[in-house]
Amino acid sequence: MRKDNNEPIRITNRYAFAEVMKKDLQLSARVISVTIGRKVSKIRLAESEKELKSSDDLRGVRFDVWFEDNENRMYDLELQVYDEKNLTKRMAFYQGKMIVEETKSGAGFEDIKEVFVIFICTGKDPFERRRTVYQFETKEVNDDSIIVEDERHAYVLNFTEEREKSDNEELEEIAEYFIHHTVKENGISEELDELVKSFNEDREWRNNIMTFGEELTMAEKRGYKQGREEGIEIGIGIRLGREMERVNIALNMLKKGLDIDMIADATELSVEEIRKLKKV
After folding, report:
1. Residue 191: count of CB within 10 angstroms of its CB
2. Band of pLDDT at residue 56, cut at 50, 70 and 90
3. Taking 50 as the threshold, does the pLDDT of residue 99 lie above it?
4. Which long-range contacts (C-beta less than 8 Å, at least 24 apart) are formed by 162-166?
5. Mean pLDDT of the chain
6. 7-32 pLDDT, tens per residue?
7. Considering the entire predicted model, what is its pTM?
8. Which residue, 185, 146, 204, 170, is CA-closest to 19?
9. CA distance linking residue 18 with residue 266, whole number of Å
10. 65 CB-side CA count, 13 A
11. What is the 3-state secondary structure (H, E, C) of 95-109?
């Protein structure tokens, strides 16, 4: 039997991050406001691990946390723990997917919603410029004063040791909470920490999170071993292991009674595929 690790689960755990962000919508709106530097109106919709897929032939995407405010704007918050490649392409893909899926048939261009994709990177500064916030919009190549007003916004938060401190006190407070788990009394970090603590007090929730992590670690080890045996680059071996073990992981997690959304996140299988496995 696995021993219960008493080490607290932090907000930098992807699943914990999604749970905290959807628990207190007002607090999440404040986090977004600080991040993008503009007031975010009251959030009326929040979904964690929202899955968008137009058809079985098209690539789907699972958002960590999805928000929509009362001014018809959409926000996607993503926690990036590992140094994964193609970050900028992922941002563009997520923006496009949000717009296409949420634009009703017959709607005019004026009905297209404004979208914000926000990546919180805790593993490595993806652009190595030591900024706390990177902001991206579409501009004309020869004259960057000409901004394409397509209402697509992308932000990358560099919440790592590899950064210069921000002049924005609240943003700096949030960054330090993600990096060092530093809590400021009566600050936004204290509110976030109280939510994280409340989840940690739920033993079943903690066990689910720990099982989630263990299954992924086992898959990585199998992929590493197979990759070495076949002379494959280690990184590719890990990815191969994850690919080959997706179904096995899903079946094991189903046997342990874990949440379908969590299983889909761990395996990158769709919710519908997980449900089919559950019937086997």
Report:
1. 16
2. very low
3. yes
4. 162/124, 162/125, 162/128, 162/130, 163/125, 163/130, 163/131, 163/132, 164/130, 164/131, 164/132, 165/132, 166/132, 166/133
5. 79
6. 888 999 888 888 888 888 889 999 99
7. 0.74
8. 204
9. 14
10. 26
11. HHHHHHHHCCCCCCH
- Residue whose token pair is 């449900």: 275
Helix axes 234-255, 271-279, angle to 10 degrees: 50
Residue 18 has which token pair? 């999604």
**Euclidean distance between CA atoms 191 and 61, whole angstroms:** 30
* Residue 220, number of CB atoms within 10 A of its CB: 16
Question: 63-94: per-residue pLDDT in tens?
Answer: 678 888 888 889 999 998 876 678 888 888 88
| Structure tokens given for 215 | 């299954």
Mean pLDDT of 188-203: 93
